[in-house]
Amino acid sequence: MSRASFPKQLWPLISHRSMLQETLLRGQRYLAPIIVCNEEHRFLIAEQVREVLSEKAQIVLEPVGRNSAPAITAAALLAAQTNPQAILWMMPADAEITEQQVLMQVMDKAIKAAALGRIVTFGMTPTRPETGYGYIEQGEPLSDVEGAYVIRSFREKPDEKTAEFFLNEGNYFWNSGMFVFRADVLLSEMQAHAPAVLAAVQKAFEHRKDDLDFIRLQREAFEQAPDISIDYAIAEKTKLSAVIPANLGWSDVGSWDALWEISPKDDHHNVLVGDVLVEDAQGCYVRSEGALTAVSGLEDVIVVVTPDAVLVTHKSQAQNVKKIVDRLKKEERAEASSHRKCHRPWGFYEGLICNDRFQVKRIVVDPGGKLSLQKHFHRSEHWVVVGGVALVTRDDEELLVRENESVYLPQGCKHRLENPGKIPLTLIEVQSGAYLGEDDIIRLEDSYNRN
Questions:
Q1: Is the pTM here over 0.90, yes or no?
Q2: How is domain 8-251 classified at the architecture level of CATH?
Q3: Does the keyword Transferase apply (predicted)?
Q4: Which residues of the chain have pLDDT under 70?
Q5: Between helices 68-82 and 195-206, what is the axis angle to 10°?
Q6: How far apart are CA 92 and CA 90, in angstroms?
Q7: How far is it, in rounded angstroms, from Cα 344 to Cα 365?
Q8: Strand locations in 283-396, DSSP E?
Q9: Would you list the domain boundaries of the chain?
Q10: 3-class secondary structure, 351
Q11: Tens digit of pLDDT for each residue in 257-304?
């Protein structure tokens, strides 16, 4: 389900809201939100923010992925413009926290420690000898903040024997990946311990551009930033780090078995999502994004059905999904990067049928949405409106196309589709030609500043 075009942060895995939305709501007591994200996801993220927050978020676009240290540096530079001592709470957008009240109590301590110049992380109380998380070793207590401690060491993901030792010792905690710090302190520590990161991001920030509602970092400078996490760049080197142990009901939702662990279950310990039937099944996670999915006589299995792929695995083998994804990428399978349903700033399209010389799509355009003015060198298109009204530009003419009406767009003609109405526009597109790839689009004009 988590693919390059639509990663897990944007999916509703725990509730009816996406994980990004849950993260934003978790922090809204404190947040003037800054989101640092892949530029390819900017319109999806902006829409999800609008759905849950009344205030606008500042959305910073990474031209390339460079891990968490450059991303956090960009956010700190943005915050420091108005208040160098602003306190930032850095949260990955893909974690679950069930104990909200405890979180708020811990945050009060973290804010106090951060105001005093500490870089604070949360240590999650381990409940099992987990080998999939990094650990933090707690040191002596801080004299000025009750419940906060110096970090003695960071530990990599352990083997099972070491994880058992960490659990029994009682002073080792899971590394949550969340940090609280002052903007000026973070930037100062970057200068001391990761100057190449700061220099590259600073230059990219200084040459940033406003693009609609987004802040676009300069590509050339940002590409020079080392690909490094905040843990390796700062947390493991600084003398200012601190940890606050807490039991927050936290999970990084890093695998299907982790999602089974934190989801509501039926009387037979099954988690069932979507159009699902089970018979004589125990301890299973079964999820369908469409087709009826039936599971009978199985225990501890994971079954996930999407319109273009099916996963079946034992819960104990859930981590091997990564190996499958690696194979899909190696074989250059489209399923490694995108779904049949592809989101765009104007709405979405969904592939229905694909053959050698033709394919059929469903296109949905939001009210007021407008596709780019474009042309194709290798295909012609036939549009049939099945809901709403379409305003179609075809070379020098404009056509109003209503339900059960159609329009033909010959190969090479300039064309554009708009929704002038108040309800979504739905149409069926039939493409035919020698080449049907998405890269056969020559954009002549675009309302969303896409290249």
A1: no
A2: Alpha-Beta Complex (3.90)
A3: yes
A4: 451
A5: 60
A6: 7
A7: 9
A8: 285-288, 293-296, 301-306, 309-314, 341-344, 347-354, 358-365, 373-375, 379-387, 390-394
A9: 8-251, 265-324, 341-445
A10: strand
A11: 989 999 999 999 999 999 999 999 999 999 999 999 999 999 999 999
